[in-house]
Amino acid sequence: MFGIGKKKELKDDKGLYNPVSGEVIELSKVNDPVFSKKIMGDGFAVEPKENKIFAPVSAKVTLVQGHAIGFKRADGLDILLHLGIDTVALKGAPFKIKVKVDDIVNGGDELGTVDWGQIEADGLDKTTMVIFTNTKDLLSGFEVKYGSANARDELGQASVK
Q1: Would the CA dihedral through 52, 69, 155, 43 be positive or negative?
Q2: Dist. CA 9–CA 11, nearest whole Å
Q3: Quick check: 21 and 161 in contact, CB under 8 A?
Q4: I need a labelling partner for 77 at 20 to 30 A (CA). Which of 13, 89, 140, 141 fits?
């Protein structure tokens, strides 16, 4: 009746969606050199204002580690949603993720929640990154609208070689 048990089909969607309400910023402005110097790949970041987290792309879920969720789009582009900076140290405590590996999500689908207050109480940065981890091999380019945006807003598109 509600689509439970119905297998979702992976959509070939080039869209990039805001994973959390807040200020969308350039990756180079992130307060961590691993991200700002694009060591893990190119992408964008968001300074979050709300606790609900949404899928930044339509894709298959490839990784769920509390602070990080991995995705693979239909065209092969790999995306990492990294929630906060150095939040791996919290061992998943502030993260309530509803998806699991091999789930299919559409851009803007709810993934779970984050207790940003707990992250701030631990002295950590809430900045959330969307990284194309196979940038060198596959990404031909992407564009996003920077500035204030609501969760689930389509921010732009990414294309592959």
Answers
A1: positive
A2: 6
A3: no
A4: 89
Q: At 73, give phi and psi (nearest 5°).
A: -75, 165
Distance (Å, rounded) from C-alpha 116 to C-alpha 67? 12
Whether 67 is a known active-site residue: answer no
Q: How many Cα neighbours within 13 Å face the side chain of 83?
A: 37
Angstrom distance (rounded) from CA 111 to CA 160: 25
Average pLDDT score over the chain: 93
Sort residue 3 into left (φ over 0), alpha (ψ -120 to 50) or beta.
left
Distances (CA, A) of 158 to 93, 104, 138: 32, 19, 10
Distance CA 31, CA 23 (A): 15
55 neighbors 111 (Cβ within 8 angstroms): yes
Whether the Cβ atoms of residue 100 and residue 4 lie closer than 8 Å to each other: no
List the single range of 6-10, 47-51, 95-99, 116-120 with lowest mean pLDDT: 6-10
Q: Helix (H, G, I), strand (E, B), or coil: what is residue 95? A: strand
From the list 82, 87, 119, 138, the catalytic residue is: 82
pTM of this structure: 0.93
